[in-house]
Amino acid sequence: MSATVSQQLVENVSIILKKSLAADATLSDLREKNQAGFEAIFTKDAGFTCSANTFQPYVEEVANDLVFWQKTSDQATLIAMVKKIEQLFTVLGNFEQSYTA
């Protein structure tokens, strides 16, 4: 794959990482107030291997997918990774809007 695609993916993962750190801090505050009692951010059918009540494990999974894809150029990994990135952007964006309003 092209260096441009790889660079864009790295930039997206970096943005997601920054957003997830802020979101996880907010989730921690909400848990202290007993306002975030869910077990997982994403459902089992969302395409992620991990299941967690914070964003960091999902970001780590995408970062691991990126490293694997960079080594193999595996098309299926790229497609799955892009879907995961889209979901993370959507959920993180919605979460930010909910708790910064």
Overall SS class: mainly alpha
End-to-end separation in angstroms reads 40 Å
Shape: elongated
Mean pLDDT: 93
Bin the helical content: over 70%
What is the count of DSSP helices, taking H or I runs of 4+ residues?
3
Count of distinct strands: 0
Please, could you describe this protein's structure?
Helices cover 72% and strands 0% of the residues. The radius of gyration is 14 Å and the shape is elongated. The protein is an all-alpha fold and 101 residues long.
Core attributes:
single chain; 101 residues; mainly alpha; 72% helix; 0% strand; elongated
Question: What's the helix and strand layout?
Answer:
Blueprint (H helix, E strand, L loop, with lengths): L2 H30 L23 H17 L2 H26 L1
Helix pairs in contact: 1-2, 1-3, 2-3
